[in-house]
Design brief:
The complex is a heterodimer.
Chain A (H helix, E strand, L loop, with lengths): L1 H12 L20 H30 L9 H36 L7 H20 L30 H29 L12 H33 L12 H35 L6 H15 L14 H13 L1 H15 L8 H24 L1 H7 L3 H31 L5 H27 L14 H31 L50 H9 L3
Chain B lengths: L22 H29 L14 H25 L3 H28 L7 H31 L11 H26 L2
Helix pairs in contact in B: 1-4, 1-5, 2-3, 2-5, 3-4, 4-5
Classes of the chains: A mainly alpha, B mainly alpha.
Chain lengths: 563, 198
């Protein structure tokens, strides 16, 4: 019978996993291993987090006093434009691609991504477009300074009349970033659809995989619209066409439609994997099954579909007809439903749980708290009358920083800490992690909470000087920004020092359920190699008598075997 | 430790052997995404055409349909020709495949040539208002895809001479053929928008 087959396999499988490659040079080469690419992405992104943070602190330094004394207003325009661009396209997207690269293959039991070479190519485009973007600081006229959304007519003015100007380099960099993201998205979607372990049906996938699938489908559907818009903008800027030039019969608002058709869903591309991280981590650190697994999973797709039909809420004050405003107000508010499903599921997971307040959990709880706050201001902004009142004020800035930093970056930090032992094979220092969390939470709150008041009082965004009545809120915000800058010190210290000489990590330090935790730390080159487990249940059965994979003990024993 | 006899039908599954050839899935996903760029251009074209105060540049009140129609017929029929090329390959008729495949390439090249002739005879340019920009943007972007398709076909033709090329399936040929159908469908929409909706 099959018993003979099984025994043969057993003989083969008794060999421990081979030692993973341990050569630091591979991180600087064109390597096709998803785990190497993931770390390349994450380290590159963290570098740009520091750069974007520095630009942000320069902006806050200018705003600490009402007059524009630190920088010329033109320089200030370039600073906030580059701050936004660096943070979104050079930090957040590469960071999430990195986490996705690290986590997707082990989590679904695949040896690697579906297209390893394409994967490496997608990564190596990041330094290329980063350099192009940063070079724009050194061209005559300085970097792009029309804000990260680059609206015409400001963006197509080209006052110096030079062929190579900041705006042109900006569009080139963004288009290359788009190409890299599409390569990544094709890869992730194919991998998730085709390479799951046996038994892992869609409703047995980890939520992180669900959210990655939802987010990457959104990339595929939305990003080409921005690419189309960017090509037309490029032609207007460089070749004298008039797609968006009102004097040539064009329509500047058309660009806003192209831009927001992608750039609103882009927020969900970034936030969905973070929802995934929350959904993975809360059950681990609360020792309870994820509440409403199927609803949380399906809600991701609810968000994907709805987020494609909400973009006009960014344009309520650009002469949009009333029926359009009402329609998009409705769809925008509707998106609170699937999001609310997730939030309630997380709270229900935490309810009565045995919480372990370690660093990843603290970042998750902080992120959830901030997300609820940012979500409420989001619903406020979706309301047409409120939006017309506070549109383009610091209220909007405060709202989206609550989502983008206080939720998404918090979730990213939680994910980095949670999976750090798995992929480096070292434990991090819990104390430094807690200091990092405390500084980040205090800094972020001081930075963006007061700006809500400044915005409600009417302080416009994107100006270098402002009325002295807003001074107090800006002083607090700037202090918060500098605390955030300081917060990066314990983080970097922790990461570098633990990776070099931290305690060796066991295969499953958090007693978590999940395929990646059945592998040794760090996982071998091809993850499970020829012993891919058969999945029986979704990975959230904490405290339940339901096995996760067939013959679980075999994999646990194997993961402990020394090389 | 290891429960050999408890569960004899246990299933340890081989890993990397299984994962070879998701190229078609990836390519279809890519094409869906690529079609959104064209979709964005088409929507932009429609909105600008409906709302622009001046549409055609001065001295022009439409563009000729006759030559582009011939071009269209050739491109659309090449989509059928490539289907027969693929079919001969499935029947292992290698020379039949190569010759019909080459005919498709010729038809594609004629399309590009016709496009070049049309461009050189037009009296307006990229800078001539919204229509000028849109016309050259759409036909140019589509033309780039046609040229890419022809180059890919050339690559497949070259590969068909390599020994053992089709041992791992005919995915390359199938993908290029799919791409050609895609380019074709895009052209039909483009033709309706630019030439028929005047």
């Amino acid at each position: 019978m099959t018993i003979i087959n099984y025994d043969q396999r057993l003989v083969k499988s008794k060999n421990p996993y081979p030692r993973g490659p341990n050569d630091w040079k591979r991180f600087f080469s064109f390597n096709t291993d998803a785990k190497v690419i993931g770390i390349q992405y994450i380290v590159t992104a963290l570098f740009f987090l520091l750069l974007g943070g520095l630009l942000g602190m320069l902006v806050r330094g200018e705003l600490i006093t009402p007059p524009s004394d630190l920088f010329d207003p033109t320089v200030y325009n370039g600073l906030y434009t580059m701050h936004g661009t660096v943070m979104l396209f050079l930090f957040l997207f590469p960071m999430l691609s990195g986490l996705t690269n690290l986590l997707v293959p082990p989590m679904i039991g695949a040896p690697d991504m579906a297209f390893p070479k394409l994967n490496a190519l997608a990564f190596w485009l990041v330094p290329v477009f980063s350099i192009i973007l940063l070079l724009s600081f050194f061209v005559p006229g300085g970097p792009a300074s029309s804000g990260w959304w680059s609206y015409p007519p400001i963006s197509i003015q080209n006052p110096l009349g030079k062929m190579i100007n900041g705006e042109m380099l900006w569009i080139t960099a963004i288009s290359l970033s788009g190409i890299s993201s599409i390569m990544g998205a094709v890869n992730f979607v194919t991998t998730i659809i085709r390479m799951r372990a046996p038994g892992m049906g869609f409703f047995k996938m980890p939520i992180f995989i669900w959210t990655v699938l939802a987010a990457q489908l959104l990339q595929l559907l939305g990003l080409p619209a921005l690419t189309g818009g960017a090509i037309m903008l490029f032609f207007d800027l460089s070749f004298g066409t008039s797609f968006f030039r009102i004097e040539g019969g064009g329509d500047p608002v058309l660009f806003q439609h192209f831009f927001w058709f992608y750039s609103h869903p882009a927020v969900y591309v970034m936030v969905l994997p973070v929802f995934g991280i929350f959904s993975e981590l809360f059950p681990v650190y609360a020792r309870k099954p994820l509440f409403g697994y199927k609803f949380v999973a399906v809600a991701s797709f609810g968000i994907t579909i709805l987020s494609l039909v909400v973009w006009v809420h960014h344009m309520f004050y650009t002469g949009t007809p009333m029926w359009m405003r009402n329609l998009f107000m409705f769809t925008t508010m509707l998106i609170a439903v699937p999001t609310g499903v997730k939030v309630f599921a997380w709270i229900a997971t935490l309810w009565g749980g045995n919480l372990r307040l370690s660093t990843p959990m603290l970042f998750c709880l902080g992120g959830l708290f901030n997300f609820i706050f940012g979500g409420i201001t989001g619903v406020m902004l979706a309301t047409v009358p409120v939006d017309i009142h506070v549109g383009n004020t610091y209220f909007v800035v405060a709202h989206f920083h609550y989502i983008i930093f206080n939720t998404i970056a918090f979730g990213i930090f939680a994910g980095i800490y949670h999976w750090f032992p798995k992929f480096t094979g070292r434990m991090f220092y819990e104390g430094l992690g807690k200091v990092h969390f405390a500084l980040t939470f205090v800094g972020a709150t001081l930075n963006w909470l007061p700006l809500h008041w400044a915005g409600l009082l009417g302080m416009p965004r994107r100006v270098a000087s402002y009325d002295p009545e807003f001074a107090i809120w800006n002083v607090i915000a700037s202090i918060g920004a500098f605390i955030l800058g300081v917060a990066s010190i314990p983080f970097i210290l922790n990461m570098v020092s633990s990776w070099v000489r931290g305690k060796a990590a066991p295969p499953n330090p958090w007693r978590a359920i999940g395929l990646e935790w059945l592998l040794p730390s760090p996982p071998p080159h091809e993850n499970f190699e020829d012993d891919i487990p058969t999945v029986l249940n979704e990975p959230y059965c904490y405290g339940l008598d339901k096995p996760f994979v067939q013959d679980e003990q075999f994999y646990i024993d194997k993961s402990f075997k020394k090389h | 430790m290891l429960s050999e006899n408890k569960n004899p039908t246990i299933n340890h599954n081989p890993g990397h052997v299984k994962h070879d050839g998701h190229n078609m899935t990836g390519f279809i996903i890519f094409l869906c995404s690529e079609s959104i760029i064209f979709f964005a251009f088409f929507v932009g074209y429609g909105i600008l055409k409906v709302t622009a105060p001046v549409w055609y540049p001065e001295g022009i009140d439409g563009i000729a349909v006759k030559e582009p129609l011939i071009n269209t017929v050739i491109l659309v029929s090449s989509s059928f020709v490539i289907y027969f090329a693929e079919k001969s390959l499935h029947k292992k008729n290698l020379w039949g495949f190569r010759s019909i495949w080459f005919i498709t390439m010729l038809m594609g090249s004629y399309f590009v040539y016709g496009q070049y002739i049309e461009w050189s005879e037009l009296s307006f340019s990229l800078q001539s208002g919204v229509f000028g920009g849109m016309f050259y943007l759409l036909t140019g972007f589509h033309g780039l895809h046609v040229i890419t398709g022809i180059l890919l076909m050339g690559l497949m033709l070259y590969r068909s001479f390599l020994p053992n090329n089709y041992q791992r399936g005919e995915m390359g040929v199938e993908s290029v053929s799919l791409f050609w159908h895609f380019v074709d469908v895009i052209w039909i929409i483009l033709f309706v928008l630019i030439y028929l909706w005047q």
